[in-house]
Amino acid sequence: MRTSWGSATDRGRVRSLNEDSLLAYPPVFMVADGMGGHSAGDVASRLAVEEFSQLAGRTSASPDDVHQCFHRTATRLRESVAAGRTAGTTVAGVAIAAHDGGSYWLVFNIGDSRVYRLSGGDLEQISVDHSVVQELIDAGELDPREAVGHPERHVITRAVGTGAEPEPDYWLIPAGTSDRLLICSDGLTSELDDGALRSILASVADPQEAAQQLVSSALQAGGKDNVSAVVVDVAVATDSPDVENTVRAPDRGATEPGPDGAWDDEIDGATIPRPTSQRQTSQRPEVP
């Protein structure tokens, strides 16, 4: 599979700390949005990236490989975060996968960071948010157009944290020859609607420039939360000797964190877990 990509992240215009982390190196592209403030949320997202980076350099990754990364992240969080602290992270991404002799994308998600695919001019959200708002939409109790202003729009129902084992969702989709994928934290989607995302993704050819423009546009729209975006262009490899693997060095530049900030002191816009008493449990999803 031939792949090129770009990435960008920023702490935003209001938050003092960037709790987002990202990884962009084949076969894995991902974004993690940490929760818990300094020495908690930023640590949680960084640990997720460290564990998933163990897959970097492989030709592909299996569902078991990815699930083990989630498991190791949760284990390290329990060992690393001080007693009495609440910490966790969302994780959304894609991994190159081989299935039945073909090239596929293994999409994975836990929390409200997202994975989109632009194909044939149409933008589709592949991942499904684990959030209170999404549950209300699924139950027919909330119109999707009302979700942006809902008071519980940042309350998530699943995350990789210090408690129970993580329960991510997985999708296995064929890799199209002209697909463009977007992996992003909710700091992007809370500022830009699907129309704005599609416009940038469809008009900016270079993936690095597209990622930077997405983040810049979110900042111009308000930038109330940390913002991260990874843009991936893929094409199924052919037998032609003229087709070479194309890769772009990952952009690891993140905004320097500001002064220490406690979780409870962050302004509206921070991703937070649902109280334990309200959480629901579900079985680990079946993986193709």
Task: Explain this structure.
- This protein has 288 residues and is α+β, with helices and mostly antiparallel strands.
- It has six helices and 13 strands.
- Strand 6 and strand 7 form a beta hairpin.
- Helix 5 (194-203) packs antiparallel against helix 6.
- The model is unreliable at 238-269 and 274-288 (pLDDT under 50).
The run of helices and strands is EEEHHEEEEHEEEEHHHEE
What is the makeup of the main sheet? 6 strands, antiparallel
Q: Architecture, CATH level 2?
A: 4-Layer Sandwich
- Determine Rg (CA atoms, Å): 18 Å
Portion in strands = 25-35%
User: How far is it from the N-terminal to the C-terminal residue, by CA?
Assistant: 20 Å
Arithmetic mean of pLDDT: 81
Tell how many strands the DSSP assignment holds: 13
Number of domains: 1
**CATH fold type:** Phosphatase 2c, domain 1
What low-confidence regions span 5 or more consecutive residues with pLDDT below 50? 238-269, 274-288
Shape: globular
Individual helix count: 6
CATH superfamily: PPM-type phosphatase domain
Secondary-structure class: alpha+beta
- Name of the level-1 CATH class: Alpha Beta
Oligomer: single chain
